[in-house]
Amino acid sequence: MSDTVLELKNASIFQGESLVLSDINLEVKKGDFVYLIGKTGSGKSSFMKTLYGDLKLTKGEGHIVDYDLLKLKEKEIPFLRRKLGIVFQDFKLLTDRTINDNLLFVLKATGWKDKAKMTERVASVLDKVDMKTKGFKFPHELSGGEQQRIAIARALLNDPELILADEPTGNLDPQTSIEVMEVLQEINKNGNTILMATHDYALLLKYPSKTLKCDDNKVFEVVQRKAN
After folding, report:
1. What is the dihedral of CA 186, 190, 195, 197, to 10 degrees?
2. Statement: the pTM of the whole predicted model exceeds 0.90
3. Which is the most buried residue in 51, 53, 113, 215, by most CB within 10 A?
4. 163 vs 159: CA distance, rounded Å
5. Long-range contacts of 219-225 (CB under 8 A, 24+ apart)
6. For 227, which DSSP code?
7. What letter does residue 162 receive in the DSSP assignment?
8. ∠ at Cα 211 (167, 3), nearest 5°?
9. What sequence ranges are listed for the domain ABC transporter (predicted)?
């Protein structure tokens, strides 16, 4: 088993006929925490969508958690996504059911059958994001930060090899953003690999880590100066 969870070689990303990013070369290894930064419209979302199969990779090479993005078939996409944990900016929780039922719904959808094991798994991921007493609440009864913690818990359900977090603090105030970052940092310390798209430079300064930047149709690594 290779410790590389994501590798792109001379990859170009298109939105329809339009070139968004060209000649991407990068590698993310197991246990890394990597930021993806760039202005709105610089290609961060298209980059993320290509990784979870929403946009097809048509040029170059791309491997993610043992899947070849160039050869990825429509029917393989659900299986790829089971190996990924995806956290969106807008939580995407089902409003008509409790937090426990939101998480059980995902487990059922991804093939879990044993009720006792499912209940145990839900309790375990809620504990990891410090939300174990909130399972009986509905999403609207939680704050934005709490809903994002639940979204992170949902991403952890199937023990993903890579978590893709697309602007996970984008809708949150600065203090809540820090709380959510602390959760992501803790999960990363426990061995989960995280690639996080963000435009919140304050978080980069507070939690420095490997940083990739989308700019001028390219993706390149930027060297961060350590805060004094």
Report:
1. -10
2. yes
3. 51
4. 10
5. 219/21, 219/24, 219/26, 219/36, 219/43, 219/47, 221/26, 222/37
6. P
7. E
8. 100
9. 6-227
Instruction: Look up residue 160 and give its amino acid.
Output: P
Tokens representing residue 204 in the block = 């980069």
State the pLDDT at residue 161. Answer: 92
The residue to which tokens 């959808």 are assigned? 109
CA dihedral 130, 109, 48, 93 (to 10 degrees): -50
The type of residue at 3 is D
What is the torsional sign of CA 13, 17, 18, 19? positive
Q: Which of 215, 184, 145 is nearest to 33 (CA)?
A: 184
Other C-beta atoms lying within 10 Å of the C-beta of residue 153: 29
Question: What span, in angstroms and rounded, lies between the C-alpha atoms of 14 and 22?
Answer: 9
Q: For the chain, which domains are there?
A: 4-222 (3.40.50.300)
115-128 helix and 144-156 helix, angle to the nearest 10 degrees? 130
What end-to-end distance do the CA atoms of the chain give, in Å?
Answer: 39
10-residue block means of pLDDT along the chain (228 residues)?
87 92 95 93 92 93 95 92 89 93 93 94 95 96 94 94 93 92 94 93 92 93 67
**Per-residue DSSP letter, 74:** G
H helices present in the chain, as ranges:
44-51, 77-82, 99-109, 115-128, 144-156, 174-189, 201-206
Q: In this structure, what token pair is assigned to residue 154?
A: 């949902």
Degrees (nearest 5) of the Cα angle 144, 150, 154? 140
Residue 115, both tokens? 């009720």
